[in-house]
Amino acid sequence: MNIAIDGPAGAGKSTIAKAAAKRLGYIYVDTGAMYRAIALYIIENEIDVENEDEVAEACSAIDIQIKYEDIQQVYLNGRNVSAEIRKEAVGNMASRAAAKKPVRDRLLSLQRSIAAENDVVMDGRDIGTFVLPEAEQKYYLTASVKTRAERRYRELVEKGETPDMAQIEADIEKRDYQDMHRDIAPLKQAEDAVYIDSSDMTIDEVVEKICGVSSAEEKK
Fold first, then answer.
1. Using CB atoms within 10 A of its CB, is residue 135 exposed (0-12), middle (13-18) or buried (19+)?
2. Residue 215 has pLDDT above 80, yes or no
3. Do 129 and 197 share a domain, yes or no?
4. Helices 88-97/165-181 angle, 10° precision
5. What's the number of domains the chain is made of?
6. In this structure, what CATH number is given to the domain that contains residue 217?
7. Which pTM was predicted?
8. Of 4, 15, 77, 196, which is the most buried if we count CB atoms within 10 A?
9. Which pLDDT does position 194 carry in this prediction?
10. Structural contact between residues 55 and 150, judged by C-beta atoms closer than 8 angstroms
11. Are 4 and 138 within 8 A, CB to CB?
């Protein structure tokens, strides 16, 4: 059983997908974490993300493993990078890197093999449209830019940072544009996906909708 959840940055996909997977007893696959791991490698090794040859060479040197040690852990070339990949700069680089064919090719087979062998809830930008087009259930989760920026602001404050709200909103709008206009598998709602705007919904309400909705008449 495969459940695909797509949507823009900051829509709460990871939180919702993780909670839904736990309730259903499925494996949660955070594809964004995989892209972030590659982005971290690109940053640390000063790779020119616009140079496809450099990116392809970098991808050949990257080994990414997803392990489940109570919670999902992401390993980059044997190193646990689960905390480092959540930095804002890594997220921004991941959006750029995800548009590159060598990066997508490197991760596609890994993502599909996990889904073929397990009951999964997988979230990302193109799961229902490209990675798992035959997924039994698909959802497009979004929220207003303002709501997403406020959520990100609170997360950063809780980590002891002093974020700039205007900058966060600008970054989200920029990432939305990049994700929706990339040449390869751009972000969009799958035709058979359930649309969910979580701007005025709680986490529990969204999880309940995902775990309870399966009828075709609710899809639009």
1. buried
2. no
3. yes
4. 20
5. 2
6. 3.40.50.300
7. 0.78
8. 4
9. 96
10. no
11. yes
Tokens of 179: 């994700």
Same domain, 110 and 175: no
pLDDT category, 213, cuts 50, 70, 90? low
Alpha helix (H) residue ranges in the chain:
13-24, 31-44, 52-60, 88-97, 101-117, 145-158, 165-181, 203-212
Position 217 scores a pLDDT of 35
The first and second tokens of residue 158, run together, are 């809780």
Amino acid letter, residue 65: Q
Q: What is the pLDDT of residues 75-102, one digit of tens each?
A: 999 999 999 999 989 999 998 998 899 9
Does the pLDDT at position 149 exceed 90? Answer: yes
Claim to verify: residue 213 and residue 140 sit in the same structural domain: yes
Q: Are residues 143 and 79 in the same domain?
A: no
Q: What is the DSSP letter of 109?
A: H
Placement of tokens 């991941």 in the chain: 94
Distance between CA 176 and CA 171 in Å, rounded? 9
Range of the structural domain that residue 64 is part of: 32-87+96-117
Mean pLDDT of 191-216: 86
Residues 69, 209: Cα–Cα separation, whole Å: 28
What pairs with residue 122 in β-bridges?
4, 29
Do 134 and 107 reside in the same domain of the chain?
A: no
